[in-house]
């Protein structure tokens, strides 16, 4: 199939956006997509978009985003890549908010050199009135505004973005910071440069898919425990691990001990990268404090200003392309 490059191509992947009923549960694609298509064509200005059946990409990965896995991330990569090779250039992906930032970061790096526009969005409340079987749009919900804005951004910007609460962020570095309110995401606005690093050329998809099945990124979240417990958490990381995200205090601070140093050195010898970030939602890590700077002498990589989802998405893209090394980080 050949697509028109100026058409908007919609991908529905589930989440709160398409939930309905009391209690809320997601509508199937068979139920939801015809309703969504009709509502879009009746509500959107004709200058924005008219969606026909060919503009809604056939996607069989529709689930609560809390259950998404690396294999699902590569599924969306291949779905979009295939449509792009057939002429499509503008995409809007609707997904759940729990892992939206993780998926967005992965897709940002996957399409870093592409001429496409991909806008990832979702909502904190369903698009449809929950207890109305006639499927009317809930005008008090953030869903319609997020989708309408995402469609507009896909027509005016090139790159990969997250659209939420009338804000457009670069998709490489966003984070969900509120579990309830519509203004739920924080990131780098498009008015500022993105935090891009060297682009990695993708492997053929069959190789990416193979490596996805073995990717195993772990995390160690610091608590005020004795250093022996922290060292033991690191000791429990085996050689089947792809990388470790060390979620530290403040600007990347963590207690120092001989046992922790020994484990960090061991992980380096086993070619398992350790990336230090912070549990704080803003401004990332630095080497300002001696309490954190010591680790970098033991081969720990700095997460800089990247959010935890941004680090995960970048690590996964590098890992599935056999490019996980300090030079690329």
Mean pLDDT, to the nearest integer, reads 92
SS content category: alpha/beta
- The overall strand count is 12
Number of helices: 9
What string gives the helices and strands in order?
Answer: EEEHHEHEHEEEHEHEHEHEH
Task: Give the radius of gyration.
Answer: 21 Å
* Lateral strand order in the biggest sheet: 1-4-5-6-7-8
* Uncertain spans: none
Describe this structure in words.
This protein is of the alpha/beta class and 329 residues long. 31% of the residues lie in helices and 18% in strands. It has nine helices and twelve strands. A six-stranded mixed beta sheet has the order 1-4-5-6-7-8. It has a four-stranded parallel beta sheet with strand order 9-10-11-12, with helices on both faces. The protein has a two-stranded antiparallel ribbon with strand order 2-3. A hairpin with a 2-residue loop joins strand 6 (159-164) and strand 7 (167-176). The protein is globular. The model has no long low-confidence stretch (mean pLDDT 92).
Short synopsis of the structure:
By secondary structure, this protein is an alpha/beta fold. The chain has helices at 29-43, 70-85, 100-110, 143-156, 205-212, 227-235, 258-269, 290-293, 308-320, and strands at residues 8-12, 19-20, 25-26, 90-94, 117-121, 159-164, 167-176, 185-189, 217-221, 243-248, 274-278, 301-302.
């Amino acid at each position: 199939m050949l697509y028109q490059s100026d058409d908007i191509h919609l991908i529905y992947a589930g989440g709160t956006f398409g939930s309905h009923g009391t209690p809320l549960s997601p509508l199937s694609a068979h139920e939801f997509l015809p309703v969504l298509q009709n509502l879009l064509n009746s509500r959107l200005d004709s200058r924005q978009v008219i969606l026909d059946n060919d503009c809604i990409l056939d996607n069989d990965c529709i689930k609560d985003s809390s259950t998404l896995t690396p294999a699902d991330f590569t599924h969306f990569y291949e779905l979009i890549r295939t449509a792009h090779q057939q002429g499509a250039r503008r995409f809007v992906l609707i997904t759940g908010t729990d892992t939206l930032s993780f998926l967005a970061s992965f897709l940002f790096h996957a399409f870093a050199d592409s001429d496409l526009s991909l806008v990832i969005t979702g909502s904190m409340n369903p698009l449809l009135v929950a207890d109305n079987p006639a499927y009317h749009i809930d005008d008090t919900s953030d869903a319609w505004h997020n989708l309408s804005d995402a469609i507009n951004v896909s027509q005016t910007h090139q790159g990969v973005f997250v659209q939420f609460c009338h804000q457009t962020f670069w998709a490489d570095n966003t984070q969900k910071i509120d579990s309830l309110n519509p203004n739920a995401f924080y990131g780098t606005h498009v008015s500022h440069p993105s935090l891009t690093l060297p682009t990695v050329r993708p492997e053929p998809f069959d190789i990416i898919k193979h490596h996805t099945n073995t990717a195993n990124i772990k995390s160690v979240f610091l608590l005020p425990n004795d250093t022996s417990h922290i060292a033991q958490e690191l000791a429990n990381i085996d050689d089947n691990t792809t990388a470790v995200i060390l979620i530290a205090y403040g600007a990347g601070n963590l207690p120092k001990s001989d046992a922790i140093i020994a484990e960090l050195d061991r992980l380096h010898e086993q070619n398992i990268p350790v990336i230090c970030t912070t549990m704080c939602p803003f401004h990332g890590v630095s080497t300002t404090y001696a309490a954190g700077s010591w680790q970098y002498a033991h081969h720990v990589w700095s997460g800089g200003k990247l959010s935890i989802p941004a680090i995960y998405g970048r690590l996964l893209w590098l890992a599935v392309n056999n490019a996980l090394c300090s030079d690329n980080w």
